[in-house]
Amino acid sequence: MNALFVICGLGVLALVAEIANLKKWFTIFVLIGLVAATTLIVLDFGTVTSHFNDMLEFDNFSLAFSGLLLVTAFFWFWMAYDYFTLQPHLTDRSALVLFALVGAIIMTSFNNMAMLFLGIEILSISLYVLAGSKKDSLFSTEAAFKYFLMGSFATGFLLMGIALVYGATGSFHIATIADFTSTHASELPGFFYAGVLLMLVGLSFKISAVPFHFWAPDVYEGSPTTITAFMSTVVKIAAIAAFYRIFSFCFSSVQATTINALQVITVLTLVLANVTAVYQNSVKRMLAYSSVGHVGYILLAFIASPATASAPIFYYLVAYAAASLAAFNVLHTLERDNHHTTIDSFNGLFKRNPLLAVGMTIALLSLAGIPPLAGFFGKYMVFALAIENGYLGLVIVAIVTSLIGVFYYFRIIIAMYFQESESKSIEFSSSTTVLIFILILINISLAIVPDTLLNLLR
Prior knowledge:
- The protein has one domain.
- The chain contains 20 helices and two strands.
- The protein is mainly alpha-helical.
């Protein structure tokens, strides 16, 4: 909880940084604050604390996911340094990102439906503005408008579902709802199950699962690349944590209601996202469909064993976040010269800048699940869990779609090493160099010590 207070304090400080003449150094303050908040998370690990009349609960699950959010946000702020320093609205954008991070942490630790809604809205409203923060781009404005309209529509489904669940159980508290559904399983009215399915629709939109993913490609492509990276990592982690918390903890006794729908969603997500990504020429749009496809692998783990899937899902998200940050960091660097980055923009990248090419290669190989990188072990854990619980058919679909993913990831790798380019060499700051090295090391080291992360949630 102390970490949440630190992030809230940074957000408030961002609002007054202009007046207090802290604008120049504010990003450095944010990085220090994120390190302090992460330290508090580590110190709290192993304890369970409840706050605000048990509306928030910080257990190992929420602490682990909150820590992942903070570490990811640290590297994101590092990557997005010029997004703030080269713009006149530094403190406004910093405040929006920090409050979005507050909403994300609430989504990992809610113990009450009201706090779930509050966390989602704090996160979403900030993102609606950030998606349209590139004011000279019509695509950015369009992205913000689409995100706002479709996000509001999905929130309506979520709220209606919460209302129906409350009407059936008489409580917003997820522990109370779980107890009520387990002891009154034969007495639950039909509108309770309708409420659960409506919540499934609302949260499937937040994690961008097919067929509720239509906003993702347009919003990812139109938003500033740094904001796209934030959506693909921090927002995705928070949404999946909220999804897992509500459907494994709160509705564990009525999983038979959602399991068939989730299997259909998983298959659609795996197939449509990966097949559609093959036909994309815009790299941001390809990574958007890739992000949707990875949700399918995570849902596969959840379907296989909701009670024990938290550790494999956590490891998968750590590997995914590290690879996505590395990929978007390279993409962001290239976009300084090319405002619209296609696969052809990567032609001859190895000759133009070997470090960028190596960093992008490792990121893409990890996303594709190529051994011995972390992405491979993430998929291996998911597939092993699913096979162990009798979902061989879904695993076969996942393996085939993973092979399709290898194809479109390798299109970029081939362009970097085997295509010629007349573009000039690329130069960037020493800070970016250090960040790329660190992200490369993280992607490699995660594969060496997977048990360290898995033991956090066992």
